Amino acid sequence: MAQTDLQPITVDTATRVFGVIGHPVFHSKSPVMHNRAFAVTGYPAIYAAFDVTDIEPAAEGIRALGICGASVTIPHKTTVMKHLDAIDDQARKIGAVNTIVNNKGWLKGYNTDSYGAVHALLDQTGLSGKTVMIIGAGGAARAVGHGLCEHPGTRVFLTNRTEKHGLILAQDLDAGFVPLEKLETTDFDILVNTTPVGMYPHTDEMPVPESVLRPEMVIMDIVYNPLETKLLYTARTRGCKVIDGVGMFVYQGARQFALWTALEPPVAQMRQVVYDTLNNY
């Protein structure tokens, strides 16, 4: 559906309000993605960005103002949890919430990052019988790791610059651990970068040496600014299949949309508007 085919939403007292809370949020592509989804489906809602430094009054504001739901981003994904009425089991296991659903003042937290990562991979490759190597030991690695460890027939390993942190997360996930310096001699099918290495403005950096990348591999980077990180560019030139960060971002947003509206998310249109926005950035 072209932008010109969409009817501008009429904002009135029946319009539902959603938004993203974080600090900073000026760079977020969630508003364009979710507003496109509302427009495509005809759902009577708008989505805004709220720059929030104090999460407790923000959570109370969601209740008081009747905001129907929110995305939660850095640095509030963990601290928001104690201000909610309920936490979904997977979000509790991950230890982070990126989605809030407001049911008449009762706030429940979910984590859709895990869903987003798995479905971004499934778009391009099978996972059963595959070995996945995750780079990183932070919140994103934890979310991605949980999703992949729960997928039937998938073997999961972690690697990390700081070995101590990587070992702790690997133990939490019941996954394996491989020191970064041993990646070149380790067999795996899929590599997922969950670190910010290669993100703007440090676009000349890679989280692993080029020699680690082999033509039969699938390489995914959750970074989407730039769209093609140095890792993805190098992997592509070496014959690997590459998956940029838009896939995970869109699928986690699609899962949010479904939780908020109980509608089928328009994934293709959500993906297209994010690409359009990034290409014009």
**What percentage of amino acids are in beta strands?**
15-25%
What is the domain total for the residues? 2
H-E string? EHEHEEHEEHEHEHEEEHEHH
- CATH top level of the largest domain is Alpha Beta
**Percent range for helical residues?**
25-40%
Looking across the biggest beta sheet, what order are the strands in? 2-1-3-5-6-4
CATH superfamily of the largest domain: Leucine Dehydrogenase, chain A, domain 1
Apparent shape: globular
Describe the structure.
This protein has 281 residues and is of the alpha/beta class. The protein folds into two domains: 3-111 and 247-279, Leucine Dehydrogenase, chain A, domain 1 (Rossmann fold, 3-Layer(aba) Sandwich), CATH 3.40.50; 115-244, Rossmann fold (3-Layer(aba) Sandwich), CATH 3.40.50.720. The protein is built from nine helices and twelve strands. It has helices at 30-41, 55-65, 89-94, 113-122, 139-149, 163-173, 230-237, 246-261, 267-279, and strands at 16-22, 45-51, 69-72, 86-87, 99-103, 106-110, 131-135, 155-159, 176-177, 190-193, 218-221, 241-243. A six-stranded mixed beta sheet has the order 2-1-3-5-6-4, sandwiched between helices. A six-stranded parallel beta sheet has the order 9-8-7-10-11-12, sandwiched between helices. Strand 1, helix 1 (30-41) and strand 2 (45-51) form a beta-alpha-beta unit. Helix 1 packs across helix 8 (246-261) and helix 4 packs across helix 5. The longest helix is centred in the C-terminal third of the chain and has 16 residues, at 246-261. The protein is globular, with a radius of gyration of 19 Å. It starts with 15 loop residues before the first strand and ends with a helix.
